C-alpha cells in the first residue's frame, strides 16, 4: 500500500471496513464487499 501512497501525492488507501463505515454513515445500505485474490476491492451499496 505504501508503494502507491508514495507515488501519488495525497492518495489515501482505505481498508474495506473503513469504506463500509463511511458508506453507512452516508446513509448507504445493503453494502456488499467483494475481494479478489489479487487485492482488488469492489463495494456495492444502495442509497
Explain this structure to me?
The protein is an alpha+beta fold. It has one domain. 34% of the residues lie in helices and 28% in strands. Strands 1-2 form a two-stranded antiparallel sheet. A hairpin with a 5-residue loop joins strand 1 (29-35) and strand 2 (41-46). It is flat. It starts with a helix and ends with a strand. The mean pLDDT is 93.
Shape: flat
- The total beta strand count reads 2
Beta content comes to 25-35%
* Coarse structural class: alpha+beta
Number of H/I helices: 2
The radius of gyration over CA amounts to: 12 Å
Distance between the termini: 29 Å
Helix content: 25-40%
Report the major sheet.
Answer: 2 strands, antiparallel
H/E series, N to C? HHEE
By oligomeric state, this entry counts as: single chain
Overall domain count: 1
Q: Strand order within the widest sheet?
A: 1-2
Low-pLDDT stretches are: none
What's this, in brief?
With 47 residues, the protein is an alpha+beta fold. The protein has 2 helices and 2 strands, in the order ααββ. The protein has one domain.
Keywords:
alpha+beta; 47 residues; single chain; flat; 34% helix; two-stranded antiparallel sheet
In terms of topology, how is this protein built?
Elements: H1 2-7, H2 16-25, E1 29-35, E2 41-46
Antiparallel strand pairs: 1-2
